[in-house]
Design a protein that fits this description.
This protein is an alpha+beta fold and 169 residues long. It has four helices and ten strands; from the N terminus they run E-E-H-E-E-E-H-E-E-H-E-E-E-H. It has helices spanning 23-30, 65-76, 99-104, 150-166; strands at 5-8, 13-19, 40-43, 46-52, 55-60, 80-84, 90-95, 121-126, 129-137, 140-145. The strands form two sheets. The chain has a five-stranded antiparallel sheet, covered by helices on one side. A five-stranded antiparallel sheet has the order 3-4-5-2-6, covered by helices on one side. Helix 1 (23-30) crosses helix 2. It starts with a strand and ends with a helix.
Length: 169
């Protein structure tokens, strides 16, 4: 079976973009379209993730944190607000073709749906823990989770990934 790797991703800057005004004007100033609901996109050095109605996350290199905050604040102007939430979530990266199998164990949604592919985003509960999922590619997924839950989810997913790898094909 496929080998899965499950690990904590390197820390990056993370910003909460709340938009209550003109989204089209924000997109123009941002020079990038905001992802549609349940979608994520990458524009240059910024990963934009739809989080909930009126809210997106922007992820970029930690070295660009101060510049990113200023750039995003200017793009939102009077149409919204940006908050640095870099410490609010930890990312867990799951790599390998069987990431869907991993999510189906302890998850409460259909990760096997072909429509849940690269660029898809979902908020769900896995092993009783609130998780936001961002499908990066055919063989990679990132999970955003509160830091206090990371050890539990990492332990569970590492154990399950070992069982998946050991399963006969």
């Amino acid at each position: 079976m496929d080998r899965l790797t499950v690990q904590v991703a390197p820390r990056e800057a993370l910003f909460w973009l709340e938009i209550w005004g003109d989204c089209a004007a924000v997109e123009t100033r941002l020079k990038a379209p905001l992802p549609a609901p349940c979608r994520a996109t990458t524009h240059g050095d910024v990963r934009l993730i739809w989080w909930q109605p009126g809210v997106w996350l922007a992820r970029l290199r930690l070295a660009d944190q101060a510049v990113g905050l200023a750039r995003l604040g200017a793009a939102l102007a009077d149409d919204g607000a940006v908050s640095d939430i870099s410490g609010a979530f930890t990312r867990i990266t799951v790599s390998g073709r069987a990431w869907r199998d991993l999510l189906m164990i302890g998850g409460v949604f259909d990760a096997e749906a072909p429509s849940f592919g690269p660029g898809s985003v979902a908020g769900t509960v896995i092993h009783h823990l609130p998780v936001h999922l961002d499908v990066i590619g055919e063989t990679q997924l990132e999970a955003y989770i509160a830091p206090s839950y990371v050890a539990d989810l990492l332990e569970r997913w590492t154990t399950v990934a070992g069982r998946i790898a050991a399963a006969p094909s």
